[in-house]
Amino acid sequence: MRLKSGVMVLGMLLGAGSVPTLAATFEVPQNFEIMYVDLESTSFGNDFETDVEPGERQFVVRFNQRIGGGSNAEFFESEPYIIDVKVKQDSDIVLQAPYFFNKSDAERFAKAPEFSLVDEGRMDKLDYQIRMLPKKSGFQPSRDYKSEIREFTATYKQPVVDKPKAAAKQVAVTEELEMLKFWYNKADVATRKDIRIWMIDPSHEAAQSNNAYDMMVFWFKKASKEDQKAFQVWLLNE
After folding, report:
1. 192-234 pLDDT, tens per residue?
2. In the 3-class helix/strand/coil scheme, how is the chain assigned residue by residue?
């Protein structure tokens, strides 16, 4: 990229014997927003790109697109997505997602964005995990996203002491299973009972639907058969 080329030229001008240390970069399309890098607030203007240090990094992004102009303009925004990624030296990490011109398509995408990360210029696989920050019910004029992200991150990045084997097993847990456990722990007694009945009888309707119940239904349907079974086994031990 132009930035990297400029750094290389500068290194050559400073001395033929010196080798510049090149940072990695992270870039999103124009209908996405980089909210945080390692929970540090960001401000990138119109280039939607930032330099990052190699190592274990956490990016927080969200879909954020305006369609139309003037009084006909509509804004579509998703919940924040947390990306835990292992950044290699001199990587060009790019978030790939479609750009929309149709309001109905943008609205659907905002509810459940699907995107991927690629390391342009490298042939090896990029190691990363993507998780959606759990939604909050009700009107939210202002949210402390940093606190929410810290709390949520702690649910899947538990400190491990003298248990390396258990840690390896924890990493293998899927996002669907994590989210099912997360929302079950958030639910009240009545909601927990309703979701247990619903898993046996999908025609069952909760006496009073709420965010925890709706999210468990969503993640259970999204989960694989293996994860659905694992969640049910987990419930038996609760």
Report:
1. 888 888 888 888 888 777 888 888 898 999 999 888 888 888 8
2. CHHHHHHHHHHHHHCCCCCCCCCEEEECCCCEEEEEECCEECCCCCCCEEEECCEEEEEEEEEEEEECCHHHCEEEECCCEEEEEEECCCCEEEEECCCCCCHHHHHHHHHCCCCEEEEECCCCCCCEEEEECCCCCCCCCCCCHHHHHHHHHHHHCCCCCCCHHHHHHHHCCCHHHHHHHHHHHHCCHHHHHHHHHHHHCCCCCCCCCCHHHHHHHHHHHHCCHHHHHHHHHHHHCC
